[in-house]
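Lecture 7 notes. Example A: sequence first, then its structure tokens.
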Amino acid sequence: MKSKKYRKILLFAYYSILLHIPMQPFPGYMAGYYLRRKVAEKLLAYCGKDIVVKDKCYFGDGCRLSVGDRSQLGQNAKLLGTIVIGEDVLMGPDVVIMATSHRYGRIDMPISQQGEAEERKVEIGDDVWIGTRSIILPGVTVGSHSIIGAGSVVTKSFPEYSIIAGNPARLIRVRT
């Protein structure tokens, strides 16, 4: 296991420099992909082969994020909490995946003082396409070979081969 100091140095390098190296079509984008992947290999709970981490992708300290082979973490993505992403997953820009939330049950105190709700893991299967600006909320499982339409808010789980879209997301059809 890597030392805490080493992790802190890698996190500092990622969030202060590597996060900002532009992506395609700007010159040097391949260097950015390479360097972000190398740092991700050290920080993530699991990092598959040949992943792509696009610019401005935020994943906290990476300890609870697992990413399968050849998957892409999209530009400006926000990935918070325990998240498992399968192999060959495509992710558009501005995707938000959250396994965390706030408590809100008490009406006698502000929500900001009620603390975090229990974390609920998010799982994304293999060969899933997550469209631009989609939001996936805590506890959701998206089955393999599914498509999430741009701008969707995914509040519940869907089986394999689903095409889902909307707010809240609903099954549009099944890929057959």
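Example B, a different protein, same format:
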Amino acid sequence: MERLQKVLARAGVASRRAAEGLIAAGRVTVNGQVVTTLGTQVDPARDRIAVDGQPIRLAKAPTTILLHKPAGYVTTVRDPWGRPTVLDLVKTAQEQSGTRLFPVGRLDADSEGLLLLTNDGELAQQLTHPRFAQEKEYLVLVEGRPGAEALQQLRAGVPLDGKLTAPALVEVMPEKPGEGGTWLRFVLHEGRKRQIRRMCQAVGHAVRRLVRVREGALLLGDLPAGQWRYLTAAEIAQLKEAE
């Protein structure tokens, strides 16, 4: 017997925390009966478990992939406005894994770069927990050329929603052509909603392009936009050890 939310996470429905939300919202049934109690024990080999009326399928094996997300795709499983989602780009990976993959964290629709997708709810739970706080690196094209004062403010902290952002590494990349603006390198340890865009806007330099190139030890590298690759066993082990 296992806890229901853990079975949902293992089936690739969502992270364990998100699975708890599905249960509390009354979207999960066990043997045809709605279950809303967290911690309910189930036998995945015997019980019929469904989410929104769709039976779950346990994954053949945990699968985690790295996608180079292009701009224009939303980081959700489905979009009420019919916009393309990142799952449209990884259909082959989902077919091979035998379950749905779901994004770990998010990138704005207009942003690009490294995004993890998995059917491993336990790994997703670890990576999205606040205590994990792994370093993320971005290349950011902003309008104009930030001066020393603006750069120092970005590094020291910008007030967003009444709270300063955490100290960050921010540097100009003079070797990278500016395309009519200036490329900056950001390294952050936190991830508030649209954080970099709002930080840059606050110092008077709107973001024109934003690309995530690193998450922890994982690098985007030369993976083309719209393409994905499986993480190696060593990479997954490194993620799990990096608490």
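Note on Example B: The first strand starts at residue 2 and ends at 3. The helical segments are 4-10, 16-24, 91-97, 121-128, 148-156, 195-202, 233-241.
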